[in-house]
Amino acid sequence: MEEKQYNLKDIVEMKKPHPCGINEWKIIRMGMDIRIKCVGCQHSVMIPRKEFTKKLKKVLKRHEEEK
What we know:
The chain has 67 residues and is mostly beta strands. The protein has one helix at 49-55; strands at residues 11-14, 25-29, 33-38, 44-48, 56-61. The radius of gyration is 11 Å and the shape is globular.
C-alpha cells in the first residue's frame, strides 16, 4: 500500500469531518504523536502517528518553504 506523504504545516483532509462541519486540518506538530488544528474552529487534537496515518484521506495543500 502506498504511504501518504505529509509534512508540518500541510493542510490535510481526514476521513471524518470535525463536528463544526469543516474537514480541513493543519498539521502543527509532528513526532510520535501528531497535533492537528481544525481550519474552521481552531480546535486542536493530538493523535498517535499510526492512527493519524490510518484516518488520513488526502493532503489538500502542501506547505512550501519560502526563502
